[in-house]
Amino acid sequence: MSTLELKSDLYKILDKIDNEELLRTIYDFLKQPDDSKSFWSSLTEAQRQEVYLSYQESENDANLISWDDLKKKY
């Protein structure tokens, strides 16, 4: 997927979100500097392990929430 396609798809997804709190959270996340090292280094070892565990769990489709269910919740 090209950069242009990614941007277009992101815009479409964001355009459908009506939950202001969720939009603010996404905005704050995207507004962060493009320096993931500073973010990562600010985490404790326990927090880093939680990120790793979450990633590993996301590899199993049974642990994922469908996009439709997520939209209903927010």
Question: Brief overview, please?
Answer:
Helices cover 73% and strands 0% of the residues. The chain is built from 5 helices and no strands.
Describe the structure.
- The chain has 74 residues and is mostly helical.
- It folds into 2 domains: 1-31, no CATH class; 33-74, no CATH class.
- The chain has helices at 3-16, 20-31, 36-42, 45-58, 67-73.
- The chain is globular and about 35 Å long.
- The two termini are 27 Å apart.
- The model has no long low-confidence stretch (mean pLDDT 87).
Helix-strand sequence: HHHHH
Indicate the percent of residues in helices.
Answer: over 70%
Distance between the termini: 27 Å
Uncertain stretches of 5 or more adjacent residues: none
Task: Classify the beta-strand content into a percent band.
Answer: under 5%
- Mean model confidence by pLDDT: 87
Q: Which overall shape is indicated by the principal axes computed on the Cα atoms?
A: globular
> How many structural domains in the coordinates?
2
